[in-house]
Amino acid sequence: MRIFSHALMGRSYFQPIIIFAYSGYCQLCFHLEPIWQSVVNDLEPLGYGIGTVSAITDGNLLEKMRISRLPSIIVVVEGRVIHYRGSMQRKILYSVFLIICLKNITNIAFAALSAKAVRIFARDVIPNTFLLKITNHDGLRRFIDQWQTSNKISVVIFGNKENPRIRYMLTAMKYATFARFAYVYLNDQSTEIVKMREALDITCFKCENILIFNDFPQKGPVARLSIGNGQQFNIDTMGEFIERNKYLTLPRVWISFSKYLQLSSQSYFDDLCP
Q1: Which residues of 132-165 are buried (b: 16+ CB within 10 A; e: fewer)?
Q2: Gene3D superfamilies per the record (predicted)?
Q3: 15-56, pLDDT tens digit by residue?
Q4: Whole-model pTM?
Q5: Which of 38, 27, 33, 77 is nearest to 52 (CA)?
Q6: How many whole angstroms separate alpha carbon 96 and alpha carbon 114?
Q7: Cis omega (within 30 of 0) on the bond before 71?
Q8: Cβ distance 136 to 192 under 8 Å?
Q9: Which domains does the chain show, CATH number per domain?
């Protein structure tokens, strides 16, 4: 209980945690396990936190998370508990019906559909404040010029999907202490996006690009990472890239507040001056 209240809730400000609540006496929970495992296999390698809670051993925790039925799936993000509201039980009962009547022929397709719904839920509960969407050149300029007020580097991701991949959202959340993140849809053919691509010398429309700007944005990006041929960035590759470039040239550990100096970020200070 104490772990949930402190470690887990604190961690949720930098990493969302998806949790499966179940009971050994719950038949519906048993039939949901393959779907849950599919979700875990997809989300865990991307950096999503994973957890399970048993009603038998963790009843108080279920009450704390306001879980009143089993099975249940929740996400803890920014200290809030968000419940999956899909028609989970009806889907599972229908899956069981198919298994009995069709000898499991259609169960795989049904499980994939249900797992997809949970993955979409896991993506949509991540606050969009961690990864802003930029649609014009002026918006990009305003974004990278905010390093002075934020005391953070600016990370701009150019992707070939209209909506950002969940791995980008998770990375943005993880490094929110040190960086601000923005996303640009690379294949948008509007005049503004074309102008932006030309200014930043981006010529491959099928590539994924990550650009980092520091406290001298007028000089252009200080680091650039690209991958083409329809490939996707590995989560570790992105992490290593940001780790190498996560500080401003002259980071301000202290900021002026009235007549006094105030620590801009304790975690920033601890990382910069261990």
Answers
A1: bebebbebbeebbeebeeebbbbbbbbbbeeebb
A2: Glutaredoxin (3.40.30.10)
A3: 999 999 999 888 888 888 999 999 999 999 999 999 999 988
A4: 0.82
A5: 33
A6: 13
A7: yes
A8: yes
A9: 1-125 (3.40.30.10), 128-271 (3.40.30.10)
